[in-house]
Amino acid sequence: MQNIPVVKLGLIAVSRDCFIISLSERRRAAIAAACAAKGLEIYEAKTTVENELDMLKAVDEVKEAGCNALCVFLGNFGPETPETLIAQRFDGPVMYAAAAEETGKDLINGRGDAYCGMLNCSYNLGMRKIRAHIPEYPVGTAEEVADMIADFIPVARTVLGLSGLKIITFGPRPQDFFACNAPIKGLYDIGVEIEENSELDLLVAYKEHAGDPRIPEVVEDMKKEMGEGRYYDDLMARMAQFELTLLDWAEQHKGARKYVAFADKCWPAFPSQFGFEPCYVNSRLVAKGIPVSCEVDIYGALSEYIGLCVTGDAVTLLDINNSVPADLYKEDIAPKFNYKLTDTFMGFHCGNTPSCKMCADRAIKYQLIQHRLLEPKDSDPDFTRGTLEGDIAASDITFYRLQCDAQGVLRAYIAEGEVLPVATRSFGGIGIFAIPEMGRFYRHVLVEKGYPHHGAVAFSHCGKALFSILRYLGIEDIAYNQPAGLPYKTENPFA
């Protein structure tokens, strides 16, 4: 996967000077060994931090080793100020974990009191307003701390990615899609840069790529991806030209940033002026690790990028689109799956979902709605061709979004579920989704809190990592699909 960071972890142990330092060092070495046994690469800093000078030395050591993320390990109670200053001095995401006591046979010299020390550590972090990742239960054996470190990797990768991300937009956000017109202030709050451009800028760049010698190679790659009979032969060179335009723009405009995502205006002017719909090209870029959100949905692109960093796999952006008809539910879902009708819905978009996440019968087709709107009645599709259509393959999924509301406050939702192996009988890039208690979640989170119709989709259950990331970013309102026995604040208890 391109366009996401590679995490290089460091491990620093701390020790309170009235405790035996060798206890912390021995426990640190055990964590490094446990990480190695799990296939996790981690640099074990040899400097153990007892005071502020040790802190400076340890931070320099991990920086020189090329580490961009840290685990600070309380092998015993730990020195409150130096251990929190590590996170302040280190330029990258930091997690804290503490040692569990090892045996009831050695609770004199072998007792570390890190269970107590983690409380003071967290208090000191709060006093200094330092963000850090603290696992759900941050006290454990070497093997358990190694598992915590494994869980931290996608969190660290995402935090690093966002700190180096630039979102590039083309075109004003659509007039009738007010939900996509969120303030950009929230991007700056989490360290993301933005570059806004005109659709004319993109059109000029596209025309300048006419005759690009790389086009035939990209065309052949597109044909190989889709398979014979699943594309419009006369359209491929135009789409390849557009793909190269975006890739070159990303490289030439990332500036001081390392990573990019796009949010592009895709209708109504785009197809008539470029001669095709951009959806299939968008799907190919996200498969490479470069999100291209529809309808200049900036926070959709941001959400997609977060999912890419978390999973290291392709994601998509879909409309939370239409209810499942009762007859389809009764025929194809109720006999096989333990979901209520209101747990299900259809996620749809014109064709931006990567082909690797779709059923085998997917193909490049045309945008039916745009064809009705933009091309002569009863004519064959022309410039409205270019979508990637078919049913989305069955998979575990996480539906989620990070959004800035009209008041400039960032908030988010996360809901785990699945794409059902049930034919949609419809058009577009589309799937039947099932999320437990979706009906209540739809009403009391999506509707109640004014979320837009776009949601990002990761093709695995990754809510745990997403929740940790959002907490690390300082997001206070993180909604989820609450179980039946846990009512929402706005839920009518008498309904």
UniProtKB/TrEMBL annotation:
Cellular component aspect of the GO annotation: cytoplasm
Pfam families per record: Fucose_iso_C (PF02952)
GO annotation (BP), single: fucose metabolic process
Superkingdom of origin: Bacteria
PANTHER family tied to this protein: FUCOSE ISOMERASE, L-FUCOSE ISOMERASE C-TERMINAL DOMAIN-CONTAINING PROTEIN
Alphabetical UniProt keywords: Carbohydrate metabolism, Isomerase
GO molecular function, one term: L-fucose isomerase activity
All residue ranges annotated as the L-fucose isomerase C-terminal domain in the record: 348-476
Organism: Candidatus Faecivivens stercoripullorum
Protein name: Fucose isomerase
